Amino acid sequence: MKAVCLLSGGLDSATCLARARQSGFECYALSFDYGQRHRVELDAARHVAVALGAVDHRVVRIDLRAFGHSALTDEIEVPKGRDEAAMGHGIPVTYVPARNTIFLSFALAWAEVLDANDIYIGVNALDYSGYPDCRPEFIHAFETMSNLATKAAVEGRTHIHIRAPLIEMTKAEIVCLALELGVPLHLTHSCYDPHANGRPCGACDSCLLRAKGFREAGVADPACV
C-alpha cells in the first residue's frame, strides 16, 4: 500500500508520517517551497523524511508570494506573544490563502500517478490557530472532490481517502503519540518566524502552541534544548 504524506517538517506532519508508516504504508513524502519566510522547515522535512523511512521525498516549488496576503508570504509582521483567547479568535494573518487546498491538489496528482489510495495530512482542529482549511468539513469535502476529479478514481483504479489522524487531538496528545511512534522530535521545526540562525522565535502562535503541547504532556521539547 502506498500513501502520499504532506510533510512540512513540523511536529504534526512528522507525527502524521510516522502514523502512516505504522499503519503499513509505503510513504511518499511531499513538501513545498512556496515562498514561506520560514524555509528552514524544508531542511527539517528532509531530515524527518529520511529518519522515518520515506520511500521518496519530493520538494515542489511554487510561489505563493505572487498572491501574498499572509504574514508567511508577504511583508506582514508575524503576530507574537498572543494568549490563548487571542489565538482562538478569528483567522490570523499567518493564514496562507487556500494553502491546504493547493497542497492537497498536488498530493492528489502524485497519488494518482502512484495508484495510491491514501493521502495523509497533519491538520488539527483543536489546538490550532483558526485556519478554515484545518477543519473536518474541509477534509471531507476535498475527499469527495478527489474521487470525482481524477481519471484513476473514475476508472475505479483508486478510491482516495484523505487521512487526517490528528484532526481531533490536542497538541499534548500529539506530542504523546509522537513519542510513542518514535518521531525524531529534535529534527522537527514549527516556528513561523525563526531567527537568522534557524532557532525558533518562541513567541509566534506556532511556537506557543507547540510549547503548550509539550508542557501539558509533561515532557521537554528536544528541539529547544
What does this entry look like structurally?
- The chain has 225 residues and is of the alpha/beta class.
- It has a single domain (2-224), classed as 3-Layer(aba) Sandwich (Rossmann fold), CATH 3.40.50.
- The chain is built from 8 helices and 5 strands.
- It has helices at 11-22, 40-51, 84-87, 99-114, 136-149, 151-154, 171-181, 205-217, and strands at 2-6, 26-33, 56-61, 118-120, 161-163.
- Strands 3-2-1-4-5 form a 5-stranded parallel β-sheet, with helices on both faces.
- Helix 2 links the parallel strand 2 (26-33) and strand 3.
- Helix 1 crosses helix 7 (171-181) and helix 7 packs across helix 8 (205-217).
- The longest helix is centred in the middle third of the chain and has 16 residues, at 99-114.
- It starts with a strand and ends in an 8-residue tail after the last helix.
- The model has no long low-confidence stretch (mean pLDDT 95).
Defining traits:
single chain, 225 residues, alpha/beta, Rossmann fold, 5-stranded parallel β-sheet, 5 strands, 38% helix, globular
End-to-end gap:
37 Å
Radius of gyration: 17 Å
Mean model confidence by pLDDT: 95
Helix fraction, binned, reads 25-40%
User: Could you state the CATH homologous superfamily?
Assistant: HUPs
User: Which runs of at least 5 residues are low in confidence (pLDDT < 50)?
Assistant: none
CATH level 1 name: Alpha Beta
Question: How many distinct beta strands?
Answer: 5
Give the neighbour order of strands across the main sheet: 3-2-1-4-5
Instruction: State the secondary-structure class.
Output: alpha/beta
How many DSSP helices? Answer: 8
Biggest β-sheet description = 5 strands, parallel
Strand content: 5-15%
Q: SSE order in H/E notation?
A: EHEHEHHEHHEHH
What would you say the CATH architecture is?
Answer: 3-Layer(aba) Sandwich
Shape: globular
Remind me, CATH topology?
A: Rossmann fold
How many distinct domains? Answer: 1
